């Protein structure tokens, strides 16, 4: 059973005490909402760039476009996307 706390008149303005179990919710400073100094755009560009890189690697392994995977050795042609790693890069007790 959750007990709802009585409003505390000594509470700091802008705090909303709902229950004993929840953390207080603070109001957002409305002067900074929607403003950006450009870092959000940099992070978005970095995120899209990394997404494009991983998508490109997947498509190259899938179709064998001739960049990292030779033509005709793609996954869709019956090749293994990790053949090179398993045969040439793995060393030690985890080779299998």
Q: Which descriptor suits the 3D outline?
A: elongated
Number of strands: 2
C-alpha Rg, in Å? 27 Å
Average pLDDT confidence is 76
The proportion of residues in beta strands is: under 5%
Distinct helical segment count:
2
Helix content: 25-40%
Q: Can you offer a commentary on this structure?
A:
The chain is mostly helical. It has a domain at 38-96. It has helices at residues 39-63, 83-89, and strands spanning 15-16, 25-26. A two-stranded antiparallel ribbon has the order 1-2. 3% of the residues are buried. The mean pLDDT is 76.
Summarize the structure.
The chain has 96 residues and is mainly α. It contains two helices and two strands. It has a two-stranded antiparallel sheet.
What keywords describe this structure?
mainly alpha; single chain; 2 strands; 2 helices; 96 residues
Q: Could you give the topology of this structure?
A:
Elements: E1 15-16, E2 25-26, H1 39-63, H2 83-89
Antiparallel strand pairs: 1-2
């Amino acid at each position: 059973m959750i007990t709802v706390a009585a409003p505390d008149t000594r509470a700091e303005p802008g705090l909303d005490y709902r229950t004993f179990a929840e953390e207080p919710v603070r109001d957002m400073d409305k002067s900074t909402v929607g403003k950006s100094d450009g870092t959000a755009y940099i992070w978005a560009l970095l995120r899209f760039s990394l997404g494009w890189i991983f998508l490109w690697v997947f498509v190259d392994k899938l179709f064998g476009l001739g960049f990292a995977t030779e033509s005709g050795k793609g996954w869709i042609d019956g090749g293994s996307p990790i053949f090179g790693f398993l045969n040439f890069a793995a060393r030690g007790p985890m080779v299998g």
